[in-house]
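Late entry, adenosine-5'-diphosphate complex.
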Amino acid sequence: MAVQYANIIIDISHENVDRVFQYRIPKQMLSDVRIGSQVCVPFGAANRTRKGYVVGITQKADFDEARIKEVAGLVEGSVTADSRLIELAWWMKERYGSTMNQALKTVLPVKKKVRARNRQVLENLVAAQPRRPAPGDREICLNPEQQGVIEAFCQDYDGGRRKPYLIHGITGSGKTEVYMEMIRHVLARGQEVIVLIPEIALTYQTVMRFYDRFGENISVMHSRLSAGERYDQFEKAREGRTKIMVGARSALFTPFAHLGLVVIDEEHEGAYRSEGAPRYHAREAAEHLAEMSGAFLVMGSATPSLEAFSKAEAGIYKLFSLKTRASRGSALAVTEVVDLRRELEAGNKSIFSRRLTELIADRLAKKEQVMLFMNRRGYSSFVSCRSCGKAVKCPHCDVSLTLHNNRQLVCHYCGYKIPLPKACPGCGSEYLAGFGVGTQKVEEMAAQTFAQARILRMDLDTTSKKGGHEAILASFARGEADILIGTQMIVKGHDFPGVTLVGILAADVSLYAPDFRCTERTFQLLVQAAGRAGRGRRAGIAVIQTYLPEHYGIGAAAAQDYEAFYRQEMGYRQLMHYPPACHMLQLQVSGRDEQLTGHMMDLVRDSVVRHFGACLEVIGPVPAPVYKVNDIYRKILYMKQENYDILIRIRNYVQERWDETEDCKQLAIQYDFS
Ligand code: ADP
Ligand code: ZN
Ligand code: ZN
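Prediction complete; structure with ligand written out below:
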């Protein structure tokens, strides 16, 4: 066997990933030393023995051969939490095409110690929470469906069977109670648990339920924690002083020594995909981590991703269905579809259909609560010229500016801001007018139509200050408002027993997003939004307003029929060779120089086609959905292949040539696997 060298980090932390030391691996150790192994090495002038972790193995010495020392030995029982995280980093680097440094920086904590403020963060959350009876006062007796999952889990867990679970349970079917029961079982066996939730600020009720149940055993990885606070949380976990880590995506990298269970709530959520390199998906990374650690993986959703559900169908995950609402007397909301074309024909130009207006008035009279959901993404109010027809755009980005209440036009991509102009910047005409409906407009119109109603609004503008989410949600939960108006933020996981009506004002807007997942996303949003109604004893109604009642995504959401949706959508993905029917690599090249960007992208395409064309479907290059952001131009090439490994080979092939090309230094390249 050839001589091999190990790259070793002595003091394992995020800041030290660039400080690697190279050692020769002695022949007799070649088969034992792996990525993630903990080893002893002679260190410094005095050659004192230190422990370090192997983060890379190469056949090429980076220094003078004669000055490279040898690895002294393998540390006994050396598979630690850090070993597994380093191994996970290696896997992420390979699978998502990043550098090892980027991957290590993702999984290793920033080393900055501060006094623990976790208690205080939790106390702030507790203070914002309307008090519920403590868990002891309110015995929950699991229903037969929930019981079925728990029994299977306990048997599989104790029997060492580790096939992941997918719990497909309608909104309010008691999935969270099931997770908590599983966690109890795992803690009783002396093991530890990671619970991933999409975004803490939006799911504080869930966090509070965990806190109520498990008290001191729990730590929360909040997105607003400082690096030092995060480090403290991770240290507590490493030392076993905390048993359960609840948090967003990055909580997956908690260094528990005895990880027994990873729970992923709302598995379908987009927030589980990382935006920075490595562009990993937390579900996939969790699956790999669980496999390495011998831990269990449990995922739950009312609207599973096509990826997860197709794996369940293929028998890779074990599927459980919860089909009834858990809370006594609570039933799934009745849904009604309103065809907005008929409204226009009848002369109703309001954003509230006649039926929705009637129902809102009825709820207000009965002192019940209403939620109005406006899917603002792609439908914000922009300003356009009635003479030349052009919208007022951001000069740095390829998007229209959004009109805010203070008569400012704001770019939601780069923050560019100008006062509303008096005349069209293009043709000088004075006939500028606002189009589209944002949440602010909905609020104004609701206030006009229902003068006596108390209205709250929750969107980016009202929640930007610290604690904004919690304050608004808590106020609504206390019954201080009759109507809550909001974007995506209000549909996620909240449990307001007083809400008996949900109005979805424009169901179809998200169907037009330039993304093959847009129907899936629309379906998920509609089902989740409808799921907010009737969580208490009184029956709920969800009204879906749409111009496209015949669309299968809208129809299946109205019928709350996940499987019907899944069959239709899967058929479309198969026809079009989109994931999960096929794998796809999106390669993006970006740069300030538009010509060079386009030219290099064409070269990349040609060389990929020349080398891999025979076995590959290539689309593009095309401009990114938003071509220019912050004066940077972006082009995308799509490649589809059933075999993921071929896509990885393409990525490696492109990156090698990219690194050798001088012109590419002014550009950026990015890979996105799905
Ligand atoms: P999901 O996570 O599926 O949306 P939750 O676990 O939040 O569902 O449960 C919805 C509501 O039903 C909660 O208020 C919860 O306390 C209650 N609940 C859950 N399981 C039961 C049960 N077995 N008996 C009575 N109430 C339950
Ligand atoms: Zn004009
Ligand atoms: Zn901009």
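Confidence is low (pLDDT under 50) at residues 129-137. Will revisit in the morning.
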